[in-house]
């Protein structure tokens, strides 16, 4: 009997039940997808790391090294369980050509530092997509997945190396997985060649770069070891990273994706709750006489509730099952980046189990909410149900206003506005759902816009200028500094520029232990950055520190910090705490020039008079200044550093926009179907007294369209109010050096284009659904 009731209801209210089903499917799908992605990200990285064995400490170095001295230090250090020195050969993008069947190009626009390497024996291995150690024959080459994502290339293509009168042709045999350098944020990448080819190229025509790697029992010992290594005055001409930073750079793109999917799934579950409540309340109101009759003949609350609850139980069960299936079948759309970066891993058993758990939670929440809503049946009395009938809105009062006196508004506008104004509670579902879906769409859109904006450079430790120039540490550091100064001084196209000198000092941390800290010093140091608290340093005895440094040394704005250099302790005041995702977030800024300390790096930020010449000028300077100097436009710097994150996020945003707009149309259909069933008598009376079907359609367009516009406005306001809080909550626990960002909006898209498109779609849906009013006639009401 119960199944017959459910079956008949499904047949009778197909559109309503289908709309509810889609809401549950989407909610379940995204909840499962966020869990699948989170588990797959961390398990895939862990599985890759088990085989590839990346170092817990890595110091890159360009220039000569004393291997005996390094090995002696490693062997004497109690933290180190294994160490190795890996030799690489430095090449540049312009030295590499890719030749395929119908394409031939070079990598001159690649900002990544490219090196040739031979396979290691036991650790820091380069693997194929099945996590097998890659072994190449002479003339073969393994290209990192990071380059394949940025450029079109296939297995069998030719890679031609042409540098310093050395020309060598290779065939692409494998696309390799690099456990360390798999993100554009790493700024470096490695191309694998055979041992024989590597030895042949190591004839002095190519420059050497070394990877000094150390392993510990506890990977977290990397920070402690870093200070010991730097104090030993061992080679440091290059980036220094620890295991935690390597892991974070690897996972960042997918962490952002997981966060977006999780937030969207929560919002969709909320929307599903609102829709289910509205559907239940409408059904109870329409069938109040039947409920009264059932109570009159002795059926108890549980029996009556069961009749309604079973339908939603079946609906939610079907929805979460289909949602789970859709999530599994479409998982490749979202996990493609994980597979390409960390290997062709099947969905892990843990992923499937936790996905089921997430699905079960969605099912329980929906059923619990249905039960809670159906409790209203308990308070219905037989007299209320059979006599008063208006059980759920007893406080409704007559309305008095002057709208009917308006001579400017037509009758259709007057009737539409009056019903919305004085029956606003019944229209809240449209307002609520549209506003929530706007938040669901706009937060990811604004996050993408922020990542792609030139302003994001201020979260990367630099002020917003046109061109960034960095001089790498090395024997020619000071000579290159003089070359850059000469170029900038003699170029009339420059409006102004700032220079920064990076030095290394010792800082007393919270445990009263001295640790190393890099400080960028210069007249403009710290200006134009995004500060959590405080401001840029204004005096020579002030220093601004990064958010991560602030956490590590347990210092805040207003505190003093003890800095050791030249054999003496010096006290500086902390003027501000800023945000920085570069160099692991361990940076500081000061106006003081530290004249007695040697520089470890120089950088310049340049503003041009003609902003349209930035790309050409940066390219020209790069050619003039040559090796050892990186010259990039700020836009190019951000794009190559965060391009992988933006690309993945863009895919997610497109999917969310499609889902969001589809759900807005679905909710419009759901609401109108229920509303028309409820208003059938009123519509029949209106038609009987002379209102045409066109008039009635116009009234509903005014009602639903007007409330939808209010929902869009409310959604935009909520996005601006809580959007940043949602994003910042995730950033604060990510450990990437950013805690608080200001989302950048695309005003034209957010405030004009998207609302107009959404309203047009809603009006089209209303027009289609309102065709059903043809069957509403006064004769049918009289017969009833």
Characteristics:
single chain; 784 residues; alpha+beta; 12-stranded mixed β-sheet; 6-stranded mixed beta barrel; 22 helices; 22 strands; 19% strand
Sheet-strand content, in percent, reads 15-25%
Distance between the termini: 27 Å
**Rg result:** 33 Å
Number of domains: 4
The computed structural class is alpha+beta
Task: Using the alpha-carbon principal axes, give the shape.
Answer: elongated
Total beta-strand segments: 22
Largest sheet geometry: 12 strands, mixed
Unreliable runs: none
Number of helices: 22
> Which range best describes the helical content: under 10%, 10-25%, 25-40%, 40-55%, 55-70% or over 70%?
40-55%
What is the average per-residue confidence, as pLDDT, rounded to a whole number?
82
Give a verbal description of the structure:
Its main location: membrane. Residues 263-366, 654-768 form the ABC3 transporter permease C-terminal domain. It is found in: Cell membrane. The chain crosses the membrane at residues 243-276, 314-338, 350-370, 427-448, 652-672, 700-722, 751-770. The strands form two sheets. Strands 1, 2, 3, 4, 5, 6, 7, 8, 9, 10, 11 and 12 form a twelve-stranded mixed β-sheet that branches. It contains 22 helices and 22 strands. The two termini are 27 Å apart. The chain is elongated. A hairpin with a 4-residue loop joins strand 3 and strand 4. By secondary structure, it is an alpha+beta fold. The chain folds into four domains: 1-54 and 243-394, no CATH class; 64-236, no CATH class; 412-458 and 642-784, no CATH class; 459-641, no CATH class.
């Amino acid at each position: 009997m119960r199944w017959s009731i459910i079956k008949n209801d499904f047949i009778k209210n197909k559109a309503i039940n289908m709309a509810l089903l889609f809401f549950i499917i989407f909610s379940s799908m995204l909840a499962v997808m966020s869990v699948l992605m989170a588990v797959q990200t961390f398990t895939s990285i862990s599985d890759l790391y088990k085989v590839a064995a990346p170092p817990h400490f890595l110091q890159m170095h360009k220039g000569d090294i004393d291997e005996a001295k390094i090995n002696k230090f490693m062997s004497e250090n109690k933290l180190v369980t294994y160490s190795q020195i890996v030799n690489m050969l430095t090449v540049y993008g312009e030295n590499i050509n890719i030749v395929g069947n119908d394409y031939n190009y070079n990598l001159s626009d690649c900002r990544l530092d490219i090196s040739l390497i031979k396979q290691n024996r036991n650790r820091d291995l380069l693997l194929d997509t099945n996590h097998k150690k890659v072994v190449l024959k002479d003339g073969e080459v393994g290209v990192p997945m990071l380059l394949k994502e940025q450029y079109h290339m296939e297995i069998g293509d030719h890679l031609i190396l042409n540098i310093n009168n050395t020309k060598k042709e290779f065939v692409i045999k494998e696309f390799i997985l690099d456990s360390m350098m798999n993100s554009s944020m790493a700024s470096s990448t490695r191309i694998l060649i055979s041992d024989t080819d590597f030895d042949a190229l190591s004839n002095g025509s190519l420059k050497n770069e070394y990877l000094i790697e150390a392993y510990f029992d506890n990977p977290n010992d990397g920070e402690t070891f870093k200070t010991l290594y730097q104090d030993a005055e061992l080679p440091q001409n290059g980036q220094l990273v620890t295991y935690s930073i390597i892991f974070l750079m690897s996972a960042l793109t997918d962490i952002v994706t997981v966060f977006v999917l999780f937030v969207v799934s929560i919002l969709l579950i909320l929307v599903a709750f609102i829709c289910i409540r509205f559907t239940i309340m409408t059904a109870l109101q329409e069938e109040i006489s039947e409920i009264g009759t059932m109570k009159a003949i002795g059926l108890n609350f549980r029996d009556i509730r069961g009749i309604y609850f079973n339908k939603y139980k079946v609906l939610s069960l079907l929805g979460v099952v289909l949602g789970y299936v859709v999530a599994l079948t479409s998982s490749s759309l979202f996990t493609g980046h994980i597979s390409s970066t960390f290997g062709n891993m099947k969905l892990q058993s843990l992923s499937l189990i936790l996905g089921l758990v997430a699905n079960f939670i969605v099912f329980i929440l929906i059923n619990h909410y249905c039960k809670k809503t159906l409790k209203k049946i308990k308070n219905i009395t037989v007299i209320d149900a059979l006599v008063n009938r208006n059980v759920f809105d007893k406080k409704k009062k007559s309305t008095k206003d002057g709208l009917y006196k308006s001579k400017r508004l037509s009758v259709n506008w007057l009737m539409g506005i009056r019903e919305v104004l004085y029956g606003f509670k019944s229209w809240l579902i449209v307002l609520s759902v549209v506003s929530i879906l706007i938040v669901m769409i706009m937060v990811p859109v604004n996050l993408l816009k922020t990542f792609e904006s030139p302003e994001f450079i201020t979260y990367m430790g630099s002020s917003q200028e046109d061109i960034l120039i960095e001089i790498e540490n090395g024997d020619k550091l000071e000579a290159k500094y003089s070359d850059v100064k000469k170029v900038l001084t003699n170029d009339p196209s420059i409006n102004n520029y700032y220079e920064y000198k990076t030095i290394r000092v010792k800082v007393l941390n919270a445990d009263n232990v001295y640790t190393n800290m890099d400080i960028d010093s210069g007249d403009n140091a710290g200006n134009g950055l995004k500060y959590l608290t405080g401001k840029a340093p204004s005096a020579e005895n002030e220093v601004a520190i990064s958010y991560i440094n602030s956490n590590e040394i347990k210092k805040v704005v207003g505190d003093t910090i003890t800095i050791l250099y030249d054999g003496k302790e010096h006290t500086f005041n902390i003027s501000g705490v800023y945000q920085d995702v570069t160099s692991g977030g361990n940076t500081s800024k000061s106006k003081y020039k530290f004249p007695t300390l040697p520089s470890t790096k120089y950088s310049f930020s340049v503003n041009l008079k003609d902003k349209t010449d930035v790309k050409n000028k940066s390219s020209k300077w790069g050619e003039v200044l040559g090796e050892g100097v990186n010259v990039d436009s700020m836009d190019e710097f951000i794009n190559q550093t965060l391009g992988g994150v933006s690309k993945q996020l863009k895919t997610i945003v497109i999917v969310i926009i499609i889902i969001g707009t589809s759900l807005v149309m679905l909710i419009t259909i759901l609401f109108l179907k229920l509303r028309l069933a409820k208003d059938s008598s009123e519509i029949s009376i209106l038609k009987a007294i002379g209102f045409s079907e066109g008039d009635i359609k116009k009234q509903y367009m005014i009602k639903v369209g007007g409330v939808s516009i209010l929902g869009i406005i409310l959604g935009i306001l909520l996005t601006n109010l809580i959007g940043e809080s949602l994003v910042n909550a995730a950033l604060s626990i990510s450990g990437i050096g950013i805690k608080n960002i200001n989302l950048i909006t695309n005003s034209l898209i957010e405030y004009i284009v998207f609302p107009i498109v959404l309203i047009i779609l809603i009006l089209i849906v209303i027009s289609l659904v309102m065709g059903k009013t043809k069957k509403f006639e006064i004769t049918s009401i009289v017969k009833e």
